[in-house]
Amino acid sequence: MKPLRRAKSRLGPAADAAQRGRLALAFAQDTVAAVLATEGVRDVVVVTDDPAASAALSALGARVVADSPAAGLNAALAHGARAARSRRPAAPVAALNADLPSLRPAELARVLRHAAAFPRAFLTDAAGIGTTLLAAAPGRELRPGFGGASRSRHAAGGAVEIPLSGVDSVRQDVDTASDLRTAAALGLGPHTARVYAALPPLMSP
C-alpha cells in the first residue's frame, strides 16, 4: 500500500484527498479481513510504510512489513512474498490487490484452489486488462508484473490465466468512481460501506 495521502488519486474530483485516504484504508481493511477469513489462507503480509494503515491492518491480524526496497509496486510484492516465506519456506504464495472492498472469502478460496494446480497463475481484473491476483506454487518465485496491461505481461511470463466465472468480487478492484459504484452493487465490506455512506451524492449509484 502506498501512503494514504497519495492513495486513489483517480477517485478525484469525486472525493477529496482526505476522503480518498479514508477509502483506501477501508478498501484494505475489508480486503485483509476477507482474506483472513478465506479457507486455506494461513498468513497475510501487507507491505506499507504508512503508519495509520500499518496500525489498522495489524489490528485485523495481518503482518505488516516496511517497504524496504522502496522501488515500486512489483518490488514491494516480491518483498512481501519473501517475507511470507521467511516463516513458511515451503508455502505457496499469492499477491492480491489491496483495493477489493467487495471481496468474498468463498470466491477467493475458489480462485486459490484453481491456482494451486499450476506453477504460477493469475486472475485478470474486471476490465480485462490488469491483474488482481498472482499466485506461485511452493518453490516458485512470484515474479510479479502488476500495473497497466499486466494481464498480457503475466501471460507472456508463463503464468496461467484463471478462467473462473462467478468470482466477480476477486476481480473488482477500485480505481475510479465508476469502479466504486460497481463494487457497491456487488456489496461492500463493512469498513468501506461506512466511508461510502458519508461520501457526496456523486459517488452514489
Give a description of the structure.
The chain is α/β, with parallel strands linked by helices and 205 residues long. It has a single domain, classed as Spore Coat Polysaccharide Biosynthesis Protein SpsA, Chain A, CATH 3.90.550. Helices cover 41% and strands 11% of the residues. The strands form 2 sheets. Strands 3-5-4-6 form a 4-stranded mixed beta sheet, sandwiched between helices. It has a two-stranded parallel ribbon with strand order 1-2. Helix 2 (51-60) links the parallel strand 1 and strand 2. Helix 1 (17-36) runs parallel beside helix 2 (51-60). The longest helix is centred in the first third of the chain and has 20 residues, at 17-36. The protein is globular and about 45 Å long. The chain starts with 16 loop residues before the first helix and ends in an 8-residue tail after the last helix.
Short description:
The protein has helices at 17-36, 51-60, 73-87, 105-115, 150-156, 168-171, 177-186, 190-197; strands at residues 45-47, 63-65, 93-96, 120-124, 131-136, 160-161. By secondary structure, the chain is of the alpha/beta class.
Tally of individual domains: 1
Helix content: 40-55%
Mean pLDDT: 95
What's the CATH superfamily, by name? Spore Coat Polysaccharide Biosynthesis Protein SpsA, Chain A
Shape-level CATH architecture:
Alpha-Beta Complex
Secondary-structure blueprint of this entry?
Blueprint lengths: L16 H20 L8 E3 L3 H10 L2 E3 L7 H15 L5 E4 L8 H11 L4 E5 L6 E6 L13 H7 L3 E2 L6 H4 L5 H10 L3 H8 L8
Parallel strand pairs: 1-2, 4-6
Antiparallel strand pairs: 3-5, 4-5
